[in-house]
Amino acid sequence: MIIDRNFKKEKTMSKTIEKYSFGIGDRFARQGKAQLEALLQAKKLGVNLVPVWNKSYREHTITGTQPDTVRTEADAAVKALGWKDSYYVDADHVNLKNVDLFLESSDFYTLDVADFSGKPADEAGFKAFVKAHQKFIGKLSIPGIDEPLEITEATIEASARKYLLAIQEAGKIYRHVEEKKGKDNFITEVSIDETDLPQIPVEMLFILSAVAREGIPAQTIAPKFTGRFNKGVDYVGDVMQFEKEFNEDLCVIAFAVKEFGLPANLKLSIHSGSDKFSIYGPIGKALKKHNAGLHLKTAGTTWLEELIGLACAEGPGLAISKEVYRKAFGRFDELCGPYASVIDIDKTKLINPDEVDKWDGKKFAETLRHVQSNPAYNRHFRQLLHVGYKVAAEIGERYYQAVEDNEKVIARNVFENLFDRHIRRVFV
Q1: CA spacing 20 to 30 A to 203: which of 11, 70, 170, 390?
Q2: In the predicted model, is pLDDT for residue 225 greater than 70?
Q3: What is the DSSP secondary-structure string of 353-391?
Q4: What is d(CA 296, CA 274) in angstroms, rounded to the nearest whole number?
């Protein structure tokens, strides 16, 4: 069956995400207030960010939690701090196999269709897509992009072969959620970032057309950019090339909104966005230049601040941080396997746990804290602990009690990390 929902009008939405939104993952659902404090501080400086608490099915599986724990955390933080603006709970990286688990608690859905990228759509749908875009063949000028896009029939076909099936799958997930939750009662993000190669502007154009033809009222879209977006550490790649791609994507989105009738507030989403300090300046500059919105996901960086806070507390807290590292070190392959595509750890640069056991809290914290000017900082140590949260989950109540006992020092680290290292660099 061929679906063409390419409405040539702006869609109306009862639930519309704000211009700037901030994804705040929290592995153990205990830092909601500290996270929200960072957004309140931003608001005092005139930056209106809305929080999106996110946790994926994989993370719930590893920690043994259920999606409703994220909603409980978000509601409690909002109530405690008197937050008056919107806030959201993201069913992060869901597919048809697991999305039902999130229907009750979530109002933001990140549709993960990575497994369908690069696979062919059915022949009838493929031919219909190519035929529908014949008018773009030739040179297409998009405002803001210096050179016109050179489009041939082969260009359209190549884009359809790479992405059409994936977007069709996103349509299936979207319509499933719509049937269960009701139309316009949730925010939809389409994630196409977990592909082998970054999308060039012409591919983004046809991806967005496919999104519109599927009738998906996407408000955020997560493409893949040049470079590596490893978990919890800085961007690795050509910053100037990233800046060029980011600006061009903003221009393509603005064009596609008008051309295909996509939601007027459609914006870019940066996945694995935590700690990408070297590209935060270019991102902030581009947002101002194009008056564009952004969804920035910071994910597991908050869990690392829990470990840092425990280490700074010395005593039993430091002992638990060291225990987590020792066990993670010994289970390297198991813990790193699920994240192999988004970490880059040189095992020879990891510190032996026997040496770590000699450290005081300051040394542990400085080795883990993402301050690259500090000679003690070790990105390999940091990445291993980033994926080592399963160990803390297995420690269980003893870990949770230590976090509760040291709430103030942990909260301070969580706040400073989000506000000073992330929000200030992008939005202030």
Answers
A1: 11
A2: yes
A3: HHHHTT--HHHHHHHHS--TTSTT--HHHHHHHHTTHHH
A4: 8
Is 91 in contact with 23 (CB distance < 8 Å)?
no
User: Could you state, in order of their start, the residue ranges of all structural domains in the chain?
Assistant: 86-299, 303-424
Longest Cα–Cα distance in the chain: 69
pTM of structure: 0.94
**Average pLDDT score over residue span 386-414:** 98
pLDDT the model gives residue 196: 77
Q: Which fold has domain 86-299?
A: TIM Barrel (3.20.20)
The answer to whether the CB of 74 falls within 8 A of the CB of 89 is yes
Rounded-to-integer distance, Cα 32 and Cα 302, Å? 10
Tens digits of per-residue pLDDT, 287-333?
999 999 999 999 789 999 999 999 999 999 999 999 999 999 999 99
Query: Which candidate, 288, 290, 328, 286, places its Cα nearest to that of 307?
Result: 328
How many CB atoms neighbour CB 139 within 10 A?
Answer: 10
pLDDT tens track for 92-138: 999 999 999 999 999 999 999 988 999 999 999 999 999 999 999 99
Element containing residue 24 per DSSP (H, E):
none
Distance CA 411, CA 305 (A): 8
End-to-end Cα distance, the chain:
48
